[in-house]
Every structure is written in C-alpha cells, then in structure tokens.
Predict the 3D structure of the following.
Amino acid sequence: MAVDTTQTEAPVVPGAPAAPEVAPLSPHVPTEHPLEIERLRPVELHPGKALYRVVLPGVIQAPADLLIAASRKSSLWPMTFGLACCAIEMIATYMSHYDLDRFGIVPWPSPRQSDVMIVAGTVTKKMAPAVKLLYEQMPNPKWVISMGACATNGGPYTRYDRVLQGVDKIIPVDVYVPGCPPRPEALLDAFIALQEKIMEERAATGR
Ligand code: SF4
C-alpha cells in the first residue's frame, strides 16, 4: 500500500479515544519525511519507582554509622566530679537556668556508664593518677572536655611544681574550654562542639 507522505496529521475517527499529545516539531526540522522524523523523535523517559519504594513506602534510608553517631551525640553522659572552682560553673550548667538535660546530657555518678569526662579544675600531680584511672574505667567510645585554664595548661599555677601543666599530659582531650573560670555558656558551647566532632568522626575506626 502506498503511503501518503504529504499527510502530517493522523485522521480523526469519530468515537475513538483522543491521541496522546506529542511535542510539536521544531520549525527548523524539515517536514518532507514526517514518518522518518516521527521514528527519530527522542523517547520520553518516565522513571518508575525503585522496588523497595513500592514494597516499603515511607521507609527512610540512612547509613548505620550516621544513626549510631546521632544516638551517641544526643545521649552524652558526663561523669560527675569536680576538682576546683571550675566545678562550680559546671554544676551551674547542670542547673535549671542552663539545663544541660535538654541536649540529652545527663550527669552520671560512675565511670562505668559515662562517656564524657569534664576535667573541671586544677589537676595536681597527687590527683592525676586518680583522674587517669577514672578515664581508663570509662567504656569506649569516650570523650574528654578540659574545662578552664587550670585543666588546659595549669592556669595561674604555672610555677607550681605540684600542679600538672595540662590534663592532656595524661589523657587525650577532645575539647578545650578557655577561661578562669569559663561561664556555663562556654561549657554549653564545648558540648555543642563535641557533638559536631562526634558527627564528623562517625566513620573513624575505633569510635
Ligand atoms: S581555671 Fe580558674 S576558676 Fe578554674 S579551677 Fe583554675 S583557678 Fe579555678
């Protein structure tokens, strides 16, 4: 059967469903061979849904290390102990005016279940072995906040031979809080920095 190549539109049959709309051809496309041009028209993509989205609609996918790190940073349990005047500011941070609990931070009176050590105050060489022992009794993963000038570098006691010139001489420190003493807002800021660090290091080995 001969094909009428001059016909550019499909014939209209009464009662038949309307033909799907197609994108009009560019005016620069030659119209001498419309059937050839119709075969060469790009296929329109209709991306379907992945199988798991069909079987489990509404399920959120997230990496396990992201969920674990988010759980850890939202449930930090600092061990309750203080060494000197900085501890008063630490205690004030736990009180209702600053309310550390709203970050999921709960003070815990045992190293066995704690995961954060706040070194708040002067670390004397007599006290240093006890601080190190408490740190070693904490389970992994664990973090240390050095609160105040004394814990960070000896503070005003730089010429005292009996004062440890920085608690990082005996245990690793994650966040340093400057000040003598630091205000409770500074300790809050240290916890927020620690939470960010936990999220950044979520894929690190051993954490
Ligand atoms: S840093 Fe200042 S406030 Fe804190 S323990 Fe040392 S002397 Fe006291």
